[in-house]
Design brief:
The protein has nine helices and no strands. It is mainly alpha-helical and about 150 residues long. About 20% of the residues are buried.
Length: about 150
């Protein structure tokens, strides 16, 4: 059983994830630019779904659901890898953003992978396989318009 300190810490992580997910939705290009027609927003629906998945993971984690832990770990891993690949593949590198977002992702992942959380949610090999299976599916969804 997880002690009170870890429970409070879990809620702080979940709220932090919800806030960050909300900020990424709010500050996304297609939301921030009011001139985008609805057609453009719908064509970027795959990106919007990723933001909602990130938000859902945080909400489920807040309510201590194992699914929330699985989604959160998957999304933080993808956020870390995806943001770094996107930033480094872009011609102009914003080192401050790269370092800050990478640090936030690593901190969240390190805390989510602590023994109290692994024991609380009884993370098994099956759960790790689910995470490993979600990663390529989410990458394909995120890159769908680039693939075809």
């Amino acid at each position: 059983m997880i002690n009170r300190t870890w429970t409070i810490f879990e809620k702080i992580l979940a709220v932090g994830e919800i806030v960050l997910a909300g900020l990424t939705i709010f500050f996304s290009d297609y939301i921030a630019e009011r001139s985008y027609p609805i057609r453009q927003i719908l064509s970027d629906i795959n990106v919007f779904i990723l933001h909602l998945l990130f938000l859902t993971g945080g909400a489920l984690l807040f309510f201590s659901k194992k699914t929330g832990w699985i989604i959160s770990v998957t999304m933080w891993f993808l956020f870390l890898i995806g943001f770094n690949i996107f930033t480094l593949s872009n011609g102009e590198i914003n080192w401050a953003a790269l370092i800050s977002f990478s640090t936030i992702s690593i901190v969240f992942l390190v805390f989510m992978l602590q023994k109290p959380f692994l024991e609380k949610y009884r993370i098994s090999k099956k759960d790790w396989l689910i995470i490993a299976g979600m990663v390529p599916v989410i990458v394909i969804v995120a890159c769908w318009h680039h693939l075809f």
